[in-house]
Amino acid sequence: MSSQVITSTNFPDLKLFKRGKVRDIYDLDDKLLIISTDRISCFDAVLPNGVPHKAEVLTKLSAFWFEFTKDIVANHFITDNVNLFPQRLQKYKQILNDRSMLVKKAKLVPVECIVRGYLSGSGWKEYKKTDSICGIKLPKGLKESDKLPEIIFTPSTKEETGHDINVIWKYIEKKIGKDTAMKLKNISIALYKKAAEYAETKGIIIADTKFEFGEIGNEIILVDEILTPDSSRFWPKDQYEPGKPQPSFDKQFVRDYLEMLGWDKTPPAPQLPEDIIQKTSQKYMQALDMLVGPSNSLDSERRNSAPSR
Questions:
Q1: Which of 74, 81, 96, 142 can pair with 100 through a Cys bridge, CB separation 3.0 to 4.6 Å?
Q2: Apex CA 180: angle with CA 168 and CA 154, to 5°?
Q3: Could you list the pLDDT tens digit for every one of the 309 residues in the chain?
Q4: Which DSSP string corresponds to 216-275?
């Protein structure tokens, strides 16, 4: 199997539904085909370099978590087995294998459901100014990367372009209604708790994550990706030390590199050097190995082509 880095797809006989920062989505009439590419985005800009095996990690982890959490909430996942895809997709099998999934169509709920168990990222920046995050008051004197006294739900807007914006609870209630807002909050916290408890047994702290939801009829379902290094902060448990930023298995590594460059965070994004690309690939694969297990992870040929650990 090829270890080719794929940063875009072009299937002329398929209807392109949306091209996101990382995913290309095609409309199959009654379903959607979601293809994870090896693109990586930081600060809302897509970087010019692809990251080897990134798409496979996102796909395999999402498929794992969709199965793991389906007792909490239904989701849009149908299959990631290309052999079960419609016949018209079989000619693209080599590209689709390990990086795509068929999903149900759903009407997106226009809210990013962010759950935090630790104080980091934009939450830490806001806390330093206000002792709160999204209007939720927190105890004074917390340090960067501290475990929060309780898990908190800190939603943001879902913007088509530019930055998502952290918002207070009242905004979400007004946007989608009190009942739906409370359902999303309760489901998101339950998802985070179950995943975080499992991940800790595998040596990973999930500091925070984001979920997206859709509706099919009157049913709320989980959509997009779930609990990947793109949508979550994964920290090695054995190196956890509050009071400072943590080493990670996610794209924070790339963000930190870009911050050092003094880039003003407006496109175009700078090129990544080869060592940063390979280390990022390694971090993503390590997260997959720890959470899912090498036997269910990337095949041996691809693993042998990956950077040594």
A1: 96
A2: 30
A3: 346 899 999 999 999 999 999 999 999 999 999 999 999 999 889 999 999 999 999 999 999 999 999 999 999 999 999 999 999 999 999 999 999 999 999 999 999 999 999 999 999 999 999 999 999 999 999 999 999 999 999 998 775 545 567 778 998 999 999 999 999 999 999 999 999 999 999 999 999 999 999 999 999 999 999 999 999 999 999 999 999 999 999 888 899 999 999 899 999 999 999 999 999 999 999 999 999 987 555 554 444 444 333
A4: ETTEEEEES--S-TTTEEEEEGGG--SSS----SSTHHHHHHHHHHT--S-SSPPPPPHH
Spatial CA neighbour of 102 closest among 37, 14, 30: 30
Residue 194's contacts (CB-CB under 8 Å, 6 or more residues apart) are 68, 69, 72
Six-digit token pair at 201?
């047994």
User: pTM of the prediction?
Assistant: 0.91
The CATH architecture of the domain made up of 108-259 is 2-Layer Sandwich (3.30)
Measured distance CA(108)–CA(220) in Å, rounded: 10
Pinpoint the residues of the chain covered by CATH 3.30.470.20: 108-259
Specify the DSSP class assigned to residue 197: H
- Going by the DSSP 8-state scheme, the letter that residue 75 receives in this structure is B
- Cis peptide before 273, with omega less than 30 degrees from 0? no
Question: What separation, in Å, do the N-terminal and C-terminal C-alpha atoms of the chain show?
Answer: 21
HEC letters along 137-170:
ECCCCCCCCCEEEEEEECCEECCCCCCCCECCHH
CATH 3.30.200.20 fits 1-105, yes or no: yes
